[in-house]
Structure prediction request, 141 residues.
Amino acid sequence: MLKSIKVRDYMTTHQVTFHADTDLYTAIDLLLEHRLSAAPVVDGQGELIGLLTEIDCLRGILSGAYYEETGGTVSACMTTRVETVAAELSVIEVAERLLQGGHHHLPVVADGRLLGQISCQDVLRAVKQFAQHESGLQTEG
Prediction:
């Protein structure tokens, strides 16, 4: 059953993360290099403190251009109110949250500590693998 597939089985655990004091242009370079639309921001203990999105970066750049300042840090423009999910949540529940919130990915946390991230692509991969497995079982019987 699709509801039995958990976030922990499909989440990305090796990911790009930033610290609040990361230079904004360094963060932008990493987002571009890794083809990411966002990355979590963590503190020294690995606890999630925010999310830096492409939109946050654009906002930071435009704000800097307006005031004729360049650069800055991730903390100046990151999103601090971040919706998160638990590793034990089903991918179906995550799909519903992704759709309702208009998100492309959600950080996975336990006790405030970042464990990974789950994206729309991860959920699609889970559904596809489940469907292929189910169709394989049906044709064998």
In short: The mean pLDDT is 88. The CA atoms of residues 42 and 135 lie 41 Å apart. The chain has one domain: 2-140.
